[in-house]
Design brief:
CATH class of the largest domain in chain B: Alpha Beta
Number of domains of chain B: 2
Number of strands of chain A: 14
CATH superfamily of one domain in chain A: Aldolase class I
Keywords (chain A): Bacterial microcompartment, Cobalamin, Cobalt, Lyase
Strand order of the largest sheet of chain B: 3-5-4-6-7-8
CATH architecture of the largest domain in chain B: 3-Layer(aba) Sandwich
Strand content of chain A: 5-15%
Structural class of chain B: alpha/beta
Number of strands of chain B: 8
Radius of gyration of chain A: 22 Å
CATH class of one domain in chain A: Alpha Beta
Helix content of chain B: 25-40%
Function (chain A): Catalyzes the deamination of various vicinal amino-alcohols to oxo compounds. Allows this organism to utilize ethanolamine as the sole source of nitrogen and carbon in the presence of vitamin B12.
Order of helices and strands of chain B: EEHHEHHHEHEHEEEH
CATH architecture of one domain in chain A: Alpha-Beta Barrel
Number of helices of chain A: 22
Largest interface: A-B, 66 and 57 residues
Family (chain A): Belongs to the EutB family.
CATH superfamily of the largest domain in chain B: Ethanolamine ammonia-lyase light chain (EutC)
Largest sheet of chain B: 6 strands, mixed
Shape of chain A: globular
Helix content of chain A: 40-55%
Pfam family, one (chain A): EutB
Oligomer: heterodimer
Shape of chain B: globular
GO cellular component, one term (chain A): ethanolamine degradation polyhedral organelle
Chain lengths: 472, 275
């Protein structure tokens, strides 16, 4: 533990036991920090902690590791990769000054890009704790992060979606039906990504072939992913399976990642293997990472840090491997970590801001579970806010209902809503494909009223009555 | 889902591929008003969410449930409560839902349940995240299970059934320990899905004691009329219980070989997109 921080307010002297404690007490309220016992003990203490944090020089984060260098490979990654030359323009600033600078006209998109190697996740997490939601939106909007594989993600004025055709038994017909629904609603330009119900190598290979067949048949400028453990994907690649993107859930401490069964070495190995396949046509960003506040505490691997700081540290892991997509799955973990719509919305904006400032292609799984105090209106709010903030991608799922994972995320319709109100378009290559396939009109970008010919042909392959087994 | 109840208004563009819903419960082919959900689909979703929310927040009707369990088991159940005082606390403090409050602990210390007489099995009913699941499915499950246990011809001594409010699965460890039970079977309301607000889960732990991990339990999930029916669930539970007693373990090293093997998952025409 480093030195204590003190702050005097009137007659009262507040004391914080080191930088980690100060960061935790300064964090806007959320249930996970309460559960961990690191939350501010009063509303006043929280603001006092923010005032004390505002006075901390950014340099302190280079001298005081929140988790010891010797104990954690993520700390070593953060400090070893830090570039003093990039840090130099802001080296004289405190956390409070840094907020002012980020909001000022001096912080141009070009300046922010050049700054990235000089920023640590802790600096970014610290400044986010002083920012209001509009600050998080304004600064994130200035950050440009573009990546590419078969489509280009993150260009200004574009919003992409992951088409998520999950099915509780990985039924091929059911998955194909959801893929068709998504494509005909203009979704799927970030990735067609399946969470398998059965998590093993042979199942992953089956699903990889299924999506790859569809992508090749219709020449869709997108990529596939099966969200299985990285070691399964490695084995699938050894078997010659058509792997576009390597998926893995990651966290911000070495112990969290160990609980996920991964470390930096296995991620490096998987990335190298995927790169060697050379399947990308426009770029070679081959990784897809998912994160989310609360995962470190859930694995009892948070080292007394608040959950938002742990989350920002996960972005150090992500940026090491130049991912195509980073997705913060913000409301999936449940009310023990993010209690209600207000906490979920705040966390989504924080994660998007922190990731973007560190140079990551941030997307967000705007979602909630049925035991959280949240509903569709909260998701509409976060969706609209993230659309304004320039979020790279969101999820797209039939009718917001994930029938395999039992939670609610954004629907194909939701993506079209936010594109329409904010004038956003899909990835450029995918947009051209949608026009060529007669899914959307070229002038207006609006959906056609009829089923495009290629897909009408596919539907004719089905038994005419579609009777099958009566789920409907 | 309410399908085709009303003739679509001109403002709604229908999706002819809606007939693919024969192959999936996913909400595909919903149609659209502009780019948004048609009113009927919006309301169908709101209803499903409302039912799932009610399942989480409506309190268990303890009186009715306990009367039903007494009828089935021939013995009045013991009513207990976790250390989570209310639902809001329960949702934010998983640690409190795993422990009994002081009053409940002292009631289990009664001579009736003393260490002198170990029992083979304690059945614990926990409200968990869905009172619907517990209210509707516990009685039918226990009826099937107790009659199958009887018919097995084996001797199984049972502790009185306990019903615990604001409780999580691990509360069974403490109860099993206090009742000096060799095994504990916890019936718990599962996290409700949008299309499954009434799903009951079942967890078996051999040699229950505080500190057991989830890896030391066997789970049977999705017990509800539209999911796993109670007779099949109780057949599997009995199999696991017999195996646990034979091997003196539960959890990952006790494999459930009673399950019907899952075959290639193609119910329909397969990947019709590529022919």
């Amino acid at each position: 533990m480093g030195k204590a921080y003190r702050y005097t307010l009137g007659q009262r002297v507040y004391r914080f036991e080191g930088l980690a404690d100060l960061m935790a007490r300064a964090t806007p309220a959320r249930s996970g920090d309460r559960l961990a016992g690191v939350m501010a003990r009063s509303a006043e203490e929280r603001v006092v902690a923010q005032m004390a944090l505002a006075e901390v020089p950014l340099k302190s984060f280079l001298n005081e590791a929140l988790i010891p260098y010797e104990a954690d490979e993520i700390t070593r990654l953060i400090l070893d990769d830090h570039q003093l030359s990039a840090f130099d323009p802001i080296a004289h600033l405190t956390v409070g000054d840094f907020r002012n600078w980020l909001l000022s006209d001096d912080a141009t998109p070009e300046m922010l890009t050049a700054l990235r190697p000089g920023l640590t996740p802790e600096m970014v997490a610290a400044v986010s704790k002083l920012m209001r939601n509009q600050d998080l939106i304004l600064v994130a909007k200035k950050c440009r992060v573009e990546t590419a594989f078969r489509s280009s993600i993150g260009q200004p004025g574009r919003l992409s979606t992951r088409l998520q055709p999950n099915h509780p038994t990985d039924d091929v017909t059911g998955i194909a039906a959801s893929i068709l629904d998504g494509l005909l609603y203009g979704n799927g330009d970030a990735v067609i990504g399946i969470n398998p119900a059965t998590d093993n190598v042979s199942q992953s290979v089956r699903l990889l072939n299924l999506v790859d067949d569809v992508i090749r048949e219709y020449a869709i400028p997108t990529q596939s992913c099966v969200l299985t453990h990285v070691t399964n994907t490695l084995e699938a690649m050894e078997q010659g399976a058509p792997v576009d993107l390597v998926f893995q859930s990651i966290g911000g401490t070495e112990a969290t990642n160990r609980s996920f069964g991964v470390d930096l070495a296995v991620l490096r190995e998987a990335r190298d293997a995927a790169l060697s396949l050379k399947r990308g046509t426009l770029g070679d960003n081959v990784m897809y990472f998912e994160t989310g506040q609360g995962s470190a505490l859930s694995a009892d691997a948070h080292h007394g840090l608040d959950q938002q700081t742990c989350e920002a540290r996960a972005y150090a892991v992500a940026r090491k491997f130049e991912p195509l997509l980073v997705n913060t799955v913000v409301g999936f973990i449940g009310p023990e970590y993010l209690f209600d719509g207000k906490e979920i919305i705040r966390a989504g904006l924080e994660d998007h801001f922190c990731g973007k400032l560190l140079g990551l292609p941030m997307g967000c799984d705007i979602c909630y579970t049925n035991h959280a105090e949240a509903d569709q209106n909260d998701m509409d709010n976060l969706l609209t806010l993230l659309g304004v903030a320039g979020c790279n991608f969101i999820m797209g799922i039939p009718g917001s209902d994930d029938i395999m994972l039992n939670y609610q995320t954004t629907s194909f319709h939701d993506a079209l809503y936010v594109r329409q109100v904010l004038g956003l378009k899909p990835a450029p290559e995918f947009e051209r494909w949608l026009v060529d396939m007669q899914i959307i009109q070229s002038e207006t970008g609006r959906l056609m009223a009829y089923v495009p010919e290629r897909f009408a042909t596919a539907l004719k392959r089905l038994p005419s009555s579609g009777t099958g087994v009566g789920h409907g | 889902m309410a399908e085709g109840k009303k003739t679509p208004t001109p403002a709604v563009t229908a999706n002819p591929w809606r007939r693919l819903r024969a192959y999936t419960d996913a909400r595909i082919g919903l149609g659209r008003a502009g780019v948004s959900l048609p009113t009927s689909e919006l309301l169908a979703f709101q209803l499903a969410h409302a039912q799932a929310r009610d399942a989480v927040h409506l309190a268990l009707d303890m009186t009715t449930l306990c009367e039903q369990l007494e009828r089935i088991s021939g013995r009045a159940p013991l009513r207990l409560h976790s250390r989570a005082v209310d639902r809001v606390t329960y949702l934010q403090r998983p640690d409190l839902g795993r422990c009994l409050d002081e009053d409940s602990r002292s009631r289990l210390h009664m001579p009736e349940a003393s260490a002198a007489s170990p029992v083979d099995l304690a059945v614990v009913v926990a409200d968990g995240l869905s009172s619907f699941a517990v209210q509707n499915n516990t009685g039918p499950f226990l009826e099937a299970f107790l009659s199958q246990l009887d018919a097995s011809g084996e001797t199984w001594s049972l502790a009185p059934i306990t019903v615990v409010e604001q409780a999580r699965v691990a509360v069974g460890d403490e109860i099993g320990d206090l009742l000096n039970a060799r095994a504990v079977l916890v019936l718990v309301g599962e996290r409700p899905g949008l299309s499954s607000p009434d799903s009951l889960g079942l967890y078996l732990t051999w040699a229950p004691a505080p500190g057991r991990t989830d890896a030391e339990r066997n789970c049977i999930s999705n017990i509800r009329p539209a999911g796993l029916d109670v007779r099949e669930a109780s057949r599997r539970a009995l199999y696991l219980l017999q195996e646990a007693r034979r091997l003196k373990i539960s959890g990952v090293s006790l494999k459930d070989r009673s399950e019907t093997p899952v075959l290639e998952c193609v119910t329909g025409p397969g990947n019709f997109l590529t022919g």
